[in-house]
Amino acid sequence: MVPSFWGAIVLTKGDTPIVVPADAKGKKIRSFGATISDTIEALDAAPTIMSGSKQFLAYQNGTVDAGMTGITAVQSRKLYEVMDHLTLTNHADIEFIVVINNDVWNGLSEKEQAIITKAGQRVEQELRTSIANKEAEARKYLADKINIIELTDEQRAEWKKATSSVVDAYVERAGAEGKAIVDAAGKL
Questions:
Q1: Would you tell me which of 45, 56, 64, 130 could form a disulfide with 28, CB atoms 3.0–4.6 Å apart?
Q2: How many Å apart are CA 43 and CA 116, to the nearest integer?
């Protein structure tokens, strides 16, 4: 597997910020997938799945109250023109992975597997460094365009507690493979 990393998820909001989980209650929040929707539901909010390209108009027209996206998207999609607050929840990362069929993988020689593994690890590190730099650049760019809220340790603990059911829902949906992924992540 070769991961592609798009960055940490942030929360955007118009008139008033969402800083603690209770601030999200009853809001319609833009989502882009099942696990993110589970997070929104854990906050007693309503997920609204939509593509990134539709965010600007959805915020502008009030179709949704808030959104989850990456900080680089806030910059590139000019979401700061229709949203006033950006909360650095960083509660999940937007990642894509490349998967190879087990039969194909097992059909490769050890040397070929080693080459692919080494290349994947190199690309993963390069992508993570590149995205971290892009996120820092976006944050700097946005500093005078949107209110950026950094959570305290106590606020982060509230978010973690409020969304603890999300991992359980993921494992239920993903089965044994999902449990293995969660267990492996817990060892990092």
A1: 64
A2: 40
